[in-house]
Amino acid sequence: MNKAQVREALDIVAGMFPDAHCELVHSNPFELTIAVLLSAQCTDETVNKVTADLFRKYRTPEDYLAVSLEELENDIKRIGLYRNKAKHIRSLCRLLLDEYGGDIPEAHEELVKLPGVGRKTANVVVSTAFGVPAIAVDTHVERVSKRLGIAGWDDSVLEVEKKLMSKVPKDEWTATHHRLIFLGRYHCKAQQPKCEGCPLLSLCREGKKRMKTPKTRKTVKHIEA
């Protein structure tokens, strides 16, 4: 995609999802960090169901350390990889208390030092909780960026992030991150994307390819008795 096409695509997606936002329910940076950590390989919907009870029971880092690992595991058992995530949460809370006065650090380079917090999680936290422009590349952002041709098919997650950062104005990074997530989650799905009638079709290399491919018909064999 050239610069003009990217601009057109961004404007179209903005029109499709003007109210795109972080769908993880939270009330402070600490809860957001825990929620994003839990969301790895798990839907936001499931995370929100779990954290509805979790955030009533655990309000501070001390609360997570006051219970056994087994109890915490049981509280997040509906989440994929819950055992590892429980360990990360307890280690994260210990480090917050030891190094950061119990508060989530605002700096990206400090966030990625926290157990269970990778680059994507840190990007979500700095942008959503602290208002720092960032683009977090999750599975939805990666998929739609590659389908549209903003990034290459073989690009790594980091390469996709760098290309988006270079092609999207910095003051639009956070909004674009949320809009691309909504695009991938509700429209350009992994399976059965809504290519027909899509406002982005004229710009989308994957969409044009899919629309040109004839649908295969299932052959039904009649077996006579």
Automatic annotation (TrEMBL):
Any Pfam family the entry gives: HhH-GPD
SMART domains associated with the record: ENDO3c, FES
Assigned EC number: 4.2.99.18
Keyword vocabulary terms for this entry: 4Fe-4S, DNA damage, DNA repair, DNA-binding, Endonuclease, Glycosidase, Hydrolase, Iron, Iron-sulfur, Lyase, Metal-binding, Nuclease
HhH-GPD domain residues: 38-186
Cofactor binding notes: Binds 1 [4Fe-4S] cluster.
GO BP field: base-excision repair, AP site formation
EC category name: lyase
Reaction catalysed by this enzyme: 2'-deoxyribonucleotide-(2'-deoxyribose 5'-phosphate)-2'-deoxyribonucleotide-DNA = a 3'-end 2'-deoxyribonucleotide-(2,3-dehydro-2,3-deoxyribose 5'-phosphate)-DNA + a 5'-end 5'-phospho-2'-deoxyribonucleoside-DNA + H(+)
Highest rank taxon of the organism: Bacteria
Chain's role: DNA repair enzyme that has both DNA N-glycosylase activity and AP-lyase activity. The DNA N-glycosylase activity releases various damaged pyrimidines from DNA by cleaving the N-glycosidic bond, leaving an AP (apurinic/apyrimidinic) site. The AP-lyase activity cleaves the phosphodiester bond 3' to the AP site by a beta-elimination, leaving a 3'-terminal unsaturated sugar and a product with a terminal 5'-phosphate.
Family statement drawn from the similarity comment of this UniProt entry: Belongs to the Nth/MutY family.
PANTHER family (UniProt xref): A/G-SPECIFIC ADENINE GLYCOSYLASE/ENDONUCLEASE III, ENDONUCLEASE III
Protein name: Endonuclease III
